[in-house]
Amino acid sequence: MRWRSARKFSSGSSKVAANEFERRRQTVAAGLAERKLDALLVAFSPNLRYLTGFTGSNGNLLVLPDRAILFTDPRYQIQAGQEASCRIKIAKGPLVPDIVAAIESSRLRRIGYEPGRMNCDLFESLNARLPMKASLVAVSGWIEQLRTIKSASELERIRRSVETNSRAFEQTVKRVRPGMTEQDLAAELEYRMRRLGAEKPSFETIVAGGARGALPHAQPTAAPLRPGSLVVVDMGAFQDGYASDMTRMLFLGSPTAKVKRTYQAVLEAQLAAIDAVRSGVSTSRVDGAARRVLKGYGLDRAFVHSTGHGLGLEIHESPRIGKRDQGRLETGMAVTIEPGVYLQGFGGIRIEDTIVVTPAGCRILTPTSKDLRVIG
């Protein structure tokens, strides 16, 4: 096996990034003792990126009280040296033998691992090769919990992702016409976001016209967008590794009274939920604010999912904002607020923004108008 030491960062921005990753690793290292661990092994890519900046597809991080070691393969030798500021081991073959060798040489006994994030092959391979007195100890949600509070640099990346996403929507919506297929509209949205700097969509773009809008997670089809129909557009971008998420509504033609009333109900519900957001408030209270509005319109039973979720290095992160969730919002969390109504035979209406929780409320990152976009 081959070793590489931490890269020397030359630019000011690189130094800031390196220091942020180092602080995160130090936080984890400081928490090992209270969890009665000698080390933590991180295999989940978003958690690995959070702690090191490494974006390769094959890597594991061993965090010890006094150091951290990133294990990867020769394909990522240059990349790891550029991205990560910790010690790096380049394995000639599978990573497991080198990880086990480091465990043995450091005389580690209790090694934490992420049970919901590590695949069975890696777990079994490690478990079969561990020294006699060493064991793997399940540790769930630790890094994910740290990730819920975003740093200033993370929030800036999310903001840029949100703006790219919104610009792609605005550029695309000008091209929407009756007869355009759901698939064509989704493809155009994704093309535009990539042209504007996104690496990829943060999830499969949802475009659902007419009655298909009653499917909250409808996949785009070859069905044409027809006059007199609602169109749900739910889209997000990954930019600099961070996700955005937005839902806006189109209508082809002149909206009916029922469309206008239902849209107004969802809009009021979304604004009520946003108004309920502040540091310290329970997530169920935010969800309840949206549901109370919809109940007043007789539409509460047509709201079939949670009001929102956290986002960051993943499109769905903690916290979840649902009626049975008991978590509390904290300053620096980035979350979505996205109530919706789904009526079979009529369609669906959902309005969604990405926001940041503040001590006294929230900051809405999504710049796109929430008005129903009418296309003549």
Task: Report what the structure shows.
There is one protein chain. The protein folds into two domains: 2-147, Creatinase/prolidase N-terminal domain (Creatine Amidinohydrolase, Chain A, domain 1, 3-Layer(aba) Sandwich); 152-375, Alpha-Beta Complex (Creatine Amidinohydrolase), CATH 3.90.230.10. It is 35% helix and 23% strand. It is α+β, with helices and mostly antiparallel strands and 376 residues long. The strands form six sheets. A seven-stranded mixed beta sheet has the order 1-5-4-3-2-6-7, sandwiched between helices. The protein has a four-stranded mixed beta sheet with strand order 9-10-13-21, with helices on one face. Strands 8-11-12 form a three-stranded antiparallel beta sheet. It has helices spanning 12-30, 45-52, 77-83, 96-105, 120-129, 142-147, 152-173, 182-195, 257-276, 283-296; strands at residues 2-4, 39-42, 59-63, 68-72, 87-90, 110-113, 135-138, 200-201, 206-209, 229-235, 237-239, 242-243, 246-252, 308-310, 317-321, 334-337, 340-343, 347-350, 353-358, 361-364, 373-375. The termini are far apart.
Features:
376 residues; alpha+beta; Creatine Amidinohydrolase, Chain A, domain 1; Creatine Amidinohydrolase; 2 domains; seven-stranded mixed β-sheet; four-stranded mixed β-sheet; 10 helices; 35% helix; elongated; disordered N terminus
